[in-house]
Amino acid sequence: GWAAGLYLNIPLSTKWSLEAQGQWSTLKYNVKSQVGTIKQFAGTMQYQSYPILLKYQTSKNFALLGGVQVDFLNTIKNDAGGGYYKRNFIANSNAATVGFELFPTKTVQIYGRYIYGLSDMKYDQNPNVGKLGHKFYNDGFQFGVKVKLFGKKAVPPVVPVVAAAPVDTDSDGV
């Protein structure tokens, strides 16, 4: 799948920041029957995702991040022809996420994170409700590139240099 979006990073200190993101995600899924031979769902689901991340910058070029994510299901496309439709899944789900970021202070940043779904996304009208072992969570890895469009670069303050008065070594007052 793929995701695109925007983010806003709010510095809390020199090492800590809070980052809110908004993403448009299209993810590919395959759901097989209990015997594992018949594809019940093979297609894509499109979400709006909203991660809220706490970021800790360990060095100039590396940061750790963790937080929560809320996903809202917009559309699904089932290529398998089975009985799965949007109504078979809950409209929103929650996840926890942890990851890393390379070059967090640069204009172009590289990130990776693991998303661990906390909500079983099957709705009570789903064909597999109550069947042993059938759970549907948004788990997975996400890797990407972020581009900083706005932001101030920290400019060190200019400290005036005051020259010390020369020492009068011969006591003539000059």
DSSP, total strands = 7
Strand content: over 45%
Strand order of the largest sheet: 1-2-3-4-5-6-7
Q: Can you count the helices?
A: 0
Query: Share of helix among residues?
Result: under 10%
Computed CA radius of gyration, to the nearest angstrom: 26 Å
Q: What distance separates the N and C termini?
A: 80 Å
Helix-strand string: EEEEEEE
Contiguous runs where pLDDT drops below 50 for at least 5 residues: none
* Inertia-based shape: rod-shaped
Summarize model confidence as the mean pLDDT: 82
* Biggest sheet character: 7 strands, antiparallel
Return the structural class. Answer: mainly beta
Describe this structure in words.
- The protein has strands spanning 2-11, 16-32, 39-59, 62-78, 92-102, 108-117, 140-147.
- The N and C termini lie far apart (80 Å).
- It is mainly β.
- The protein has a seven-stranded antiparallel β-sheet, with no helix packed on it.
- The chain is rod-shaped, with a radius of gyration of 26 Å.
- It is built from no helices and seven strands.
- A hairpin with a 6-residue loop joins strand 2 and strand 3 (39-59).
- Helices cover 0% and strands 54% of the residues.
- The model has no long low-confidence stretch (mean pLDDT 82).
Annotate the secondary structure layout.
Layout: E1 2-11, E2 16-32, E3 39-59, E4 62-78, E5 92-102, E6 108-117, E7 140-147
Antiparallel strand pairs: 1-2, 2-3, 3-4, 4-5, 5-6, 6-7
